[in-house]
Amino acid sequence: MTTGPSMPDEFKDEAHGRIEVVLVDDQPIVGEAVRRMLSDDPDISVEPILDSVTAMDRIRESQPTVLIIDLVMPSIDGVELTRLVREDDVTSDIPVIILSSESDVHRKVDAFEVGASDFLVKMPDRLELIARIRALAAKAVAEQALKKMADRLQRQAVALDEANRNLQALNVSLESDVSEQRDRLRAIAMLGNELARIQDIDILMERLLTEARRILGADAGGSFLVDGDALRLTHAQNQSQSDPVMLEQLRQSAVNIPVDTSSIVGWVTMENELVNIEDVYSIDDDVPFTFNSSFDESYGYRTRSVLAAPLTGSAGQVIGVLQLINPMHPDGTPRTSFNTDDENAVRHFASMASVSMQNAQLTRSMILRMIRMAELRDPSETGAHANRVAEYALVIYAGWADKHGVPDEVRERERDRLRIAAMLHDVGKVAIPDTILKKPGKLTDEEFATMQGHTMVDDTLFDELLSGYDEAAADVVRGHHERWDGGGYPGNQALERDDHGYLVFPSSPIRQGRSGEDIPLFARIVAIADVFDALGSNRSYKEAWSDDRILSLLQDEAGTHFDPELIEIFIDRIEAIRVIRHKWSGS
Ligand code: C2E
Ligand code: SIN
Ligand code: SIN
Ligand code: SIN
Ligand code: FE
Ligand code: FE
What is the band of 304 on the pLDDT scale with cuts at 50, 70, 90? Predict the structure, then answer.
C-alpha cells in the first residue's frame, strides 16, 4: 500500500515474522535433510535437537513457531514428547508435526490423540513440508490474535469503567465553574462513555471531530492520526464548504504531513502542546510553522482562527491532533478567536478521547493482523481490499439508513459494527490452502467447493468473542456470497470436523442458500461492495474489468444476485464510491 493509511508497525513485524522450527529426531541425518529442504525459504530457520529427553527444556526456552518431532525415538518417543508439550502451559499452543516412517503409519491416531497438529511420512516432499509448516504457523498466529482480541474486549470493559469514574470525578470538580463552561465540560465528560464504545478508529476520529466542532462551535476542522513518522488527515469537515468530493480530495492531499515544526499540526505533535492562533494569515514571525493556504486558495474558503490540540496515549506520546477552525456563536455568526475557555474545553476533550483512541487502534491492528493472516500468501492484496469494501459498505448503508429513517444514534452504532464486519468478510480465507487461493486459472468444482468454505468459519472464528461485533462479523462472513434469488452459498451449512479435528470442506459446490431478506442486511451490502471491488481488481485468475462493464453487471444482476434496492442506492452514489477507490488505490 502506498497512498492508503498503512498498518501499525507492530503488525508488519509480526506478519513478516520468521518461522522458527525445532526438529527433534535422534538421527542427525534427518535433521540435516530437513534443514537442507527448508534452506531455500528465507523465512524459515531450523534448530535440530537429537536427544528427546532434554528436548523439553530447549523447547520451553526457545518457544519455536512450529515443532517437528520424530515418532520413533529411544526413551521418550514422539507421542510421549507431544503429550509433554501439550501439558506444559508455556508450550501447549505450539503446533506439532509428527514425522513417521512408512511402517509406523498405524500410529497416526495415537499422535492425533495426544494433540499432534499434523502427520507426515519421511521424507516428505520439500514443497509440501514448507506448505504445511507455513499453514500451521499462520494458524497458530491467528489463534494467538484471537486470544488477544478476547483479552482486549476485557480491557474495553475496564476502559468503560474508567470513563465512568472520570465522569463522576468531573461532576464533583465542576461545582465552582461558571455555568456555560460547566455545561460544555459536562457534555464532554458524558461523551467519554459513549466514545469508549466505538471500536473502529476511523469512525471514532470522525465522531471526535464532529463532537469537538459541535461543543466548541467551530465552522471547520480536521482530525489527524500519527502514522509512523508522519501525520495523516483522517477526516476533514467544513460547514460552509461541505462538498464531500472536495473534502475527500483534501483528505487525500494530506496523507503524509511530516512531524516537524513547519506545519501547525506537525508542531503540535512535536511539542505536545496546544496552539491557538487568532489569524493564520498573520502568524508571528517568531514561530517556526506556517499556514498551508492551498485549501483556501482552491476552494475560496477563508481560514482565520485555528485551535489545534494534541491527542495523547497512555505513555503521554502524541497519537493524533484535533484541529478546529473558525469559531462561531451558537447562532452561526463568527467569533473573533478561540478563547481560554475553548482551550480548556479542547484539552479536556483530548484527555477524554485518549482511552477510546488507544482501544480503537488496538482493535484495528488486531483486525489487520487477521486479514493479513488470511492473505499472507498473496502479497499483492493486503488491508486495502478490506478497507475499500468496508468504506463502500458504509456508503451503501448511509443511503439505506436515509431511506429508512434510521435514527442517528442507531446509525452511528451500526456503522461501527458494519465497518469492522466488512473488513473481516474474507477472514475465512485463512483456512483455504495456497494451491487454491493462488491458482492462476479457473477453479475446478471441487476446488471451488473448498473455497466456499471461507464463508463457513463463523463458529470456529467468532465462537469465543463476546461483543456485538461478533454477530455482525459472523453475519457478513457467512452471508457475503449469498444471492438475492437464493442461488448463492453457504445457506445454513456448517463445516464438519473429521476424527482428528480437521475441518472437512464441502466436496461439491453449494448452489443453494438463503434468499431475499433472510440474508442479513450487512451481508447483502457487503456482497455488492465485494463484487464491485473484486471485478475492478486484478486477481491471480483474472484481469480487472472496466468500470462500464462492472456497472452493467451490477445492474443486470439486481434482483437475481443482488438486493435491487441496495443496487439502486449504490449506483446513485457511484461518485462517492470512486473517490474511495482512488484513495485506496495504492496497493
Ligand atoms: P474474490 O476474487 O474476492 O471474488 C469475490 C466475488 O466477486 C466472487 O465470488 C464473484 O461473485 C465476483 N467475481 C470475481 N471475479 C469475477 C468474474 O471474473 N466474473 C464474475 N461474474 N464475477 C466475479 P465467488 O465466485 O463466490 O468467489 C469467491 C472467491 O473464490 C473469490 O474471491 C476468489 O478468491 C475465489 N475464486 C472464485 N473463482 C475463482 C477462479 O476461477 N480461480 C481462482 N483462482 N479463484 C477463484
Ligand atoms: C478544513 O479546512 O476544512 C480543515 C482541514 C485541515 O485541517 O487542513
Ligand atoms: C458515510 O459514512 O458515508 C456517512 C454515513 C452516515 O451519515 O450515517
Ligand atoms: C480477496 O481479495 O478477496 C483475497 C485476495 C485475493 O484473492 O487477491
Ligand atoms: Fe469472499
Ligand atoms: Fe473479498
Answer: very high
pLDDT tens digits for range 560-579: 999 999 999 999 999 999 98
Q: Supply the pLDDT for residue 362.
A: 77
Please identify, by atom number, the ligand 2 atom nearest to the C-alpha of residue 222.
7
Spell out the domains of the chain, with CATH numbers in brackets: 9-144 (3.40.50.2300), 194-354 (3.30.450.40), 378-583 (1.10.3210.10)
Closest CA to 281 of 303, 257, 309: 303
What mean pLDDT, rounded, does the chain reach? 85
C-alpha to C-alpha distance for 373 and 17, rounded to whole angstroms: 12
Residue 500 pLDDT class (50, 70, 90 cuts): low
pTM above 0.90, yes or no: no
Q: Which ligand is nearest to the CA of 455?
A: 5
Please check whether residue 560 is in contact with residue 484, taking contact to mean a CB–CB distance below 8 angstroms. yes
Residue 363, classified by CB atoms within 10 Å of its CB into exposed (0-12), middle (13-18) or buried (19+), is buried
Output the residue whose Cα is nearest ligand 3's atom 6.
398
| CA distances (Å), origin 492, targets 190, 487, 488, 501, 510 | 42, 13, 11, 21, 11
**Residue 148: is its pLDDT beyond 70?**
no
CA of 247 to the centre of ligand 2 (A): 8
User: Could you tell me the three cell numbers for 40?
Assistant: 531455500
